[in-house]
Design goal:
Largest sheet: none
Number of strands: 0
Order of helices and strands: HHHHHHHH
Radius of gyration: 17 Å
């Protein structure tokens, strides 16, 4: 990758990673509802899922190139279905005190969010196909870029998580409204994955 496109690459990574998406909204929602400790357990799953997604993107980009490109759209439907499930779960527990909610999110929830998170999958494929593959097909460059991507997404998830942890007490008395807004936000993410822009 030429040094001249490095600023564009970094800007793309930051903007894509920090904007609201399923993983960031789940981090915020979990921190608002359960606090930092539970949210960090879920974050470890998010980070692991992001790592798997980015390394899969590296391998698929390197080995299969454009052959699998048309099939990525089907991942959108799988991801949208899972995100809608998360939104439904959030609505179902809206207004329930966190200590009464027996289905606390954890590592597995975070892992599943990012394994089905089409935003992350497309983010990785787009970064590799736009900023690396036009200049080199070297596995080492692809791995380096894939590992850098692994740093950006989970780091931005932490920003949302810590914001939620700081706002937890402020929103505690409006828990039902916050849960409904977060569920609707997740549902909008799901819809945006499958409806063409």
């Amino acid at each position: 990758m030429p040094v001249s496109i490095l600023p564009s690459f970094l800007l793309y990574c930051y903007i894509t990673a920090i904007t609201p998406g399923p993983a960031n909204l789940c981090s915020l929602s979990t921190a608002l509802r359960y606090g930092r400790t539970v949210a960090l357990r879920q974050w470890r799953g998010l980070a692991t899922g992001f790592f798997i997604d980015s390394m899969a993107a590296v391998l698929i980009s390197r080995l299969l190139g454009d052959v699998l490109g048309p099939y990525v759209q089907y991942l959108s439907w799988i991801g949208a279905a899972y995100i809608l499930y998360l939104a439904w779960h959030m609505l179902r527990s809206a207004g329930t005190a966190p200590e009464e909610d027996t289905r606390r999110p954890g590592f597995r929830t975070g892992l599943l969010v990012n394994l089905t998170n089409v935003k992350v999958i497309l983010f990785c494929f787009t970064a590799l196909s736009s900023f690396v593959l036009p200049y080199t097909r070297s596995l080492w460059w692809l791995l380096g870029a894939g590992l850098f991507l692994e740093l950006t997404g989970p780091a931005c998830n932490l920003v949302w998580l810590f914001a939620g942890a700081q706002l937890k007490n402020l929103f505690a008395k409006h828990q039902k409204t916050v849960d409904i807004v977060m569920a609707v936000s997740l549902a909008l993410c799901a819809v945006s994955l499958v409806i063409p822009h």
